[in-house]
Amino acid sequence: MRKYLEQEMIADSLRGKVRYNCTTFIGMDGCRFFELFVDGKSFKRFSWETVNSYFIAEGYVNKPKPMRIADYWKDFWRVLEKYPMTERTEYTDDEFCAALEEYRNSNIQESIHSQNPIVKMFALFDRRIGKRTLEQIEEEVNAQPKWVQALYQRRKESSFSAKISIPGREKQ
User: Fold this and answer.
1) For 44-57, what is the mean pLDDT?
2) DSSP the chain
3) Which of 11, 46, 54, 152 has a CA positioned 20 to 30 A from the CA of residue 128?
């Protein structure tokens, strides 16, 4: 996954500035979390934990205080089913994997216009997306969650400030 996303498909202007990480927990039924780093800083995590914490913080579920582990996970699947990806800003590791599969099996135009914010994230960093396309999708991106908008701005800034090497001179 990392080689594909960070080396093969990454826009030249972002090479070395975007990193993906996967942490797995041994003996915990395949639990893992994916993490996106931008410019050396943790930017976004994808896991059951981040989604469940989001549900609690947003008041989608009421939890007793103090809370036991069983209380923490109570109703998680019911609430996850009730609030699809388009209605929240945190996503599970399974949703990350499904989005990566969708991105890899779709053409870049489908990916950049996807309503799935994770697929759009992959597409925003893709080397096949140029400056004109970035300009054309600005309104569409503004309808996405704030974290996708921030990634769009990062990509746009890097693409528009990238220097083009021409023998004997440089252009902005």
Assistant:
1) 95
2) -HHIIIIISB-GGGTTTEEEEEEE-TTSTT-EEEEEEETTEEEEEESHHHHHHHHHHTTSS---SS--HHHHHTTHHHHHHHS-GGG-S---HHHHHHHHHHHHTS-HHHHHT-S-HHHHHHHHTBTT--HHHHHHTHHHHHTS-HHHHHHHHHHHHHHHHPPEEETTEEE-
3) 46
Q: What's the confidence (pLDDT) of residue 172?
A: 45
How far is the C-alpha of 16 from the C-alpha of 21, rounded, in Å? 14
Higher pLDDT, 165 or 162: 162
CB 85 within 8 A of CB 115: no
Averaged pLDDT score across all residues of the chain? 91
Residue 29, pLDDT > 80, answer no
pLDDT at residue 166, rounded to an integer: 45
Residue 119 is which amino acid?
Answer: V
